[in-house]
Recover the amino acids of this structure.
């Protein structure tokens, strides 16, 4: 990891530091937060002070504390959804590529049908019918994301599946899961890793968008998208409060894109000194 950091250009290093910082804040949130997540410590929309370093929100809760816990909830949820989408999409894609025939046709047509629905409308309908609990939220976001992963993973697997070393594995009598895990996955890992970073950005922004619309993580749980919605009225009075969670969303998205951009150049063998 240290060697990879040293080899990376300045832009990628900045992105790595942003990601590491956000992950650290997410994991250590209870230790870093100066107050409780829902503790009322002052009047609504107080300005910066020694008591509240970033001021308070619309209810008088410490904004720094809410941002820290918001990182914990939003980022960890986005990681969970992205990992679930990748496991589901990649497994089905590899299965379709290796088995071919009617399995490939059925899975691909099902994915085409799901991709025909606009993602936001699909999520809004499902959440309106089934509620906004965390398990429902995870699956409603993961399923559309898995269809995008499926398309990429299937294209990669179809190309790898016709290689000689895969044919040799079949002749040896290796099982389908062995071929998928030991022959296809290692050779598709590089582009899939880059796609994981990009897909995480889309999932992260989508969770924030749903929270902004009131269909994501529900109060009093801290969430960056929800914090923008809750404090949007402060803009009318010239108060900066909603800009801070919006800036938190932006900085993580930029950091991930800096790393993914360098990783794509590196995978293609085109690594400039600075990106």
């Amino acid at each position: 990891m240290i060697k990879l950091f040293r080899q990376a250009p300045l832009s990628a290093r900045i992105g790595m530091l942003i990601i590491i910082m956000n992950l650290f804040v997410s994991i250590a949130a209870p230790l870093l937060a100066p107050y409780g997540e829902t503790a009322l410590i002052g009047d609504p929309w107080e300005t910066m002070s020694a008591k509240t370093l970033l001021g308070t929100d619309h209810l008088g809760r410490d904004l720094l504390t809410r941002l820290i816990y918001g990182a914990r909830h939003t980022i960890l949820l986005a990681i969970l959804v992205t990992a679930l989408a990748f496991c589901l999409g990649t497994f089905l894609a590899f299965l379709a590529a290796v088995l071919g025939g009617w399995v490939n046709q059925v899975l691909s047509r099902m994915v085409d049908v799901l991709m025909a629905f606009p993602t936001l409308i699909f999520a809004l309908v499902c959440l309106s019918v089934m509620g906004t609990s965390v398990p429902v939220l995870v699956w409603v976001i993961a399923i559309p994301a898995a269809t995008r992963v499926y398309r990429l993973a299937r294209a990669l697997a179809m190309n790898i599946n016709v290689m000689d070393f895969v044919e040799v594995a079949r002749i040896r009598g290796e099982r389908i899961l062995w071929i998928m895990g030991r022959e296809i996955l290692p050779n598709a890992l590089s582009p899939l890793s880059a796609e994981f970073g990009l897909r995480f950005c889309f999932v992260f922004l989508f969770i924030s968008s749903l929270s902004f619309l009131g269909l994501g993580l529900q109060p009093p749980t801290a969430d960056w998208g929800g914090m923008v919605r809750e404090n949007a009225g402060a803009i009318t009075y010239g108060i900066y409060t909603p800009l801070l969670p919006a800036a938190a969303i932006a900085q993580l998205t930029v950091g991930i894109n800096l790393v993914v951009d360098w990783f794509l150049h590196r995978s293609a063998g085109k690594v400039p000194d600075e990106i």
